[in-house]
Amino acid sequence: MQKISVPLKAKIIVLFGPLLVGALAFYVYYAIKLFNEDKAAYIYDSTLASVETLGEQVRSRMSEMESLLLPLIKSGHEQIRTQDLTRLKETLLRKEEMYEAVFLVREIKDQQQLLKNKFQVFVHRPEGLEEENYQAFSDIQNAKLMEDLQHSQSKNFTSKTVSLAGSKILEVVKSYPEGILVLRLSASHFFTALAKGKQHYFLLFNENLETILDGGRKDFINHLESSGFDLAKQVVNFQSRPTADVGAEVREFDLSGKGERKQNVLLGIKFLPDFKLWALALIPTNEAFRAARFLIQRSAFLGGLLLSLCVFFGLLFARGLTRPLEKLAAMAQKVAKGEFGITVAIKGRDELSALATTFNYMSKEIEHYIGEMKEKSRLENELYVAQLVQSTFFPDQDWKKGCIEVSGRFRSASECGGDWWGIFHHGPKSVIFICDATGHGVGAALMTATAFCSLRNLKQIIYDHPDYLENPGKILSFMNHAALGLKGEMLMTAVVGVLDVETHIFKYANASHCPPIFFKSKENTPTPEKDQFVPLMEANGARLGHRSDEIYKYEEIMLEKDDAIFFYTDGITEAENAEGKPFGQRRLLKTLIKTRMALASNVVDTVFSDINDFLEGASIKDDHTVVCLKRQSKHVVKIALHGTPAHDFDLMKLKDELTKQNMVVEEIENGRDADVILYWCKLPLSPEELEFLKTNGKKVYVLSDVTSEENIEFILSPFEIRHLIGKNAFDLYGEISANICKERFGHLWGIERYLGDGAIIHHEEVGSSEKIMEIVSQMIEKFDLTTYFAPLKDYLATVSVELVSNAVFDAVRKPSGELKYYNVDRTQSHALELKEKVSFKMGRGEKLMAISVEDNFGGLKRDIILNGILRAMREKMPKTETGGAGLGLYMAFGLSSTLVVNLWDDKRTEVIALFDLQKRQKHYKERVTSFHFFREE
User: Fold this and answer.
1) pLDDT tens by residue, 382-422
2) Which residues lie below 8 Å from residue 460, measured CB to CB, with a gap of 6+?
3) Are 166 and 190 spatial neighbours (Cβ–Cβ below 8 Å)?
């Protein structure tokens, strides 16, 4: 029982605690952020307003003075009347900051501009300074001014600050067409009204970046000077910024003077274009945001208080919620231990109370349900096993042989289906089945299992009675007897077809199944027409399992190039969509026309795709099975070249040889899609080559020029390679072509394909061990070998005796699978039973001699052959105690030009040794021995 290491209330606290803390923290952070942003906006606006106010004050003062002095400036009198100056002086006396007003008239004399005094009004003078001293100061300043202005007439407004007797005097100069107006004011009086009650420090810079006025916040000036903060530089930076066109800006800076802690300051800049002045206002940031900090502290305190309250009430809530759940958890643990029927009491009328009531009911009923669940689980497991077993009944891939291809697909309406299709091959003939048991589900699946077992038994029967392949009706009769064992409880429809891959004759018989559709191709008809699809209605009999005396007839047709036969079960045409409409024969025919019957796999895939589109998600009510048999117009073999081909290798010659066998070669680069890979081997093998041979071994044809021992040890044994050919083969292209055709067309047995037309072949059966030498000698004497190298007869005799002896002593097996004659004394004669007799053939063609030894047990597997040869190569000793004919096969491999093994597991083995008909033994010995292995699938 699982121990509760983390209680639910702890999870609630861990889950909601951080969530609550995070929410409050976000609230506090967001509130503080809003306070800061709001206060910052206010401070920035206030600083900018102060700067603008300073500018407006300068503008106001100048405008006021101009309004008083303008009548005198515009007057055309050479001298101003005394009473006008007196009234002006009285007016100006009310302005405490005014020291002097002077107007200098422009005169042109000798083409030069001269300035002379038109009027001069003294109002105040700095305290402690005599009037004559100030008069002297004024005259000197006016002289300098006149000298400067004679060379710079473009300026219409300038200002600067000069010192006199410890006082700062603000000198403002403005140009008019009539002359120059000079005002001298007290800088301290000018700033007094503006700076009163303000937190800012104010400055005025003229266009030469000279400080002409400053005031306010005297305590801040020392810190500003000690920090080395260059205000004039900030004005220059402001001039270069695009915002200078706006005329105002507020920015924040860091001040860090010696001995002072780091401090931030807000700086406002305003440009007064009328007077070409720069107005600046500064304020420490910590003072500006004092109110904001106060609000932040209060917000943090409030957030902490809310958090404490939430945590407190959250703990109370978690406890009240988890206590009933703890009771339910304790009960669930007891139920898990098998204590059924117990109950738990939880008060209330909420969801937890309802859950407790339901749990109490479940506790009482669970024992009953457990019994039912065990039974259901057992049935589901058995059903799964049945489904798994049934899936093995179907072919796992499409099948091709020669220009014939077969593709099929099955889909069950439930866990186990009642449809089945299969195919098996016997020599050049292939048998195709399609069956449909009554209904679907377990019962129908058992019927398909019966059909599948009939197929397995039939393969064995056909091995002994190949005449079954001549009459598909016999196959249906055999299956009917198996179905009768169900006493009519289950019936099955079926179609059986037998195709001869060489003659392309298709024979079929039908047991009340949906008639197969025969597609008859027409030349120059890219899109099929309806009349090309003909149902095969003949040879129709009763369903399997219906009558014991039913005799099934068969019919036959010829499959011409591009003809095809389409098999299907009634679940295809009867498939209904959500509206209850069936797929029907017409839609099936349209689908077949759409496929153009080009490829069998494409026909099958398209039919299933169209049915899926038609159903639109509706469930299928019956099993779906389709099979397509197609004869292509030409047999294409895709060949890829790998490695570095020999300089004298001519692919066109190989293509010509294959063309003679009605095969078309398509050369491709991708070995993965190739049917045959011609591989030029070079030892030692690189890691890439090792991986290549592991992946593609079964379709690789190795061309090698190394020794036989190296071929066995480094090429054949480690991999699944089935074909190795010596590069110096007597008939290289013929050998490659013969084996490709043999593999593609399924003609595995016999020596006829190697020897060709017109070959002389003799056949004997060996039924006794003492007859081996006699039969071999007599067989060799039937051939005239005088024109070939002398030891050929010895080679033939040695290999024949070894191969026949291996078949007699090492092939025969008991029903238990043990070797029957392995331990007998081989010097003593013993007779073989009928099935144990060995078939021995010897033949001669135009280029080859051939020996064939065949047994009826099929125990000579590929690994046994290669391991036996390899052991004999290394030890040069007869076979070991564990059995095997290593030394005999080694001698056959070493003396022959080619060693061929044909295998049908546990049924039949044929070992063929081929010998080149060379005239000189030297040429024969130079030959690299080839090896070919074929397996009847």
Assistant:
1) 566 555 555 666 787 788 877 889 999 988 877 777 788 88
2) none
3) no
For residue 26, what are its two tokens? 């976000």
Q: Of 749, 803, 744, 796, whose CA–CA distance to 772 is shortest?
A: 803
Residues 624, 410: contact at Cβ < 8 Å? yes
The letter for the amino acid at 910 is E
**The pair of three-digit structure tokens given for residue 109, joined into one six-digit string:** 């004399």
- Helices and strands, number each (H, E), in the chain: 24, 33
Dihedral class, residue 464 (left if φ above 0, else alpha if ψ from -120 to 50, else beta) = alpha
Helix spans in 424-569 (H)? 442-464, 472-483
Structure tokens at 217: 């916040």
Query: How confident is the model at residue 352, as a pLDDT?
Result: 66
Query: What is the token pair recorded at 729?
Result: 């083969």
Which residues, including other chains, have CB under 8 Å from residue 806's CB and lie 6 or more apart?
Answer: 853, 885, 888, 889, 911
Contacts of 798 (CB under 8 A, 6+ apart): 891, 895
Residues 6+ apart with CB under 8 A from 873: 709, 712, 713, 890
Closest CA to 807 of 838, 835, 851, 829: 838
Matching residue, tokens 């009163």: 196
Angle between helices 82-93 and 8-74 (to 10 degrees): 160
Rounded to 5 degrees, φ, ψ at 904 are -120, 110
Closest CA to 725 of 713, 739, 714: 739
Does residue 93 carry a pLDDT above 50? yes
Is residue 724 within 8 A of residue 933, CB to CB? The reply is: no
Q: Which secondary-structure segment (H or E) carries 232? A: helix 231-240
Average pLDDT over residues 691-707: 92
Report the C-alpha gap between 288 and 300 in whole angstroms: 20
Query: pTM higher than 0.90 for the full model?
Result: no
User: Omega of the bond prior to 582 within 30 degrees of 0, cis?
Assistant: no
Q: How far apart are alpha carbons 277 and 108 in whole angstroms?
A: 31
User: Residue type for 657, please?
Assistant: E
603 and 597 Cβ atoms separated by less than 8 Å: yes
Q: Tell me: the pLDDT tens digits for 814-828?
A: 888 888 888 888 777
DSSP track, 659-709: HHTTEEEEEES-GGG-SEEEEE--SSPPHHHHHHHHHHGGGEEEEE-S-HH
Q: Three-class SS of residue 559?
A: coil
pLDDT tens-digit map of 128-183: 788 888 888 888 888 887 777 666 555 667 778 888 877 788 888 888 877 888 88
H/E run at residue 315: helix 290-336
Helix (H, G, I), strand (E, B) or coil at 205: strand
pLDDT digits (tens, 9 = 90+) for 494-504: 999 999 888 88
Here the tokens at position 876 are: 């040069």
C-beta of residue 428 within 8 angstroms of C-beta of residue 501? yes
Look at the block and give the residue holding tokens 């399997």.
544
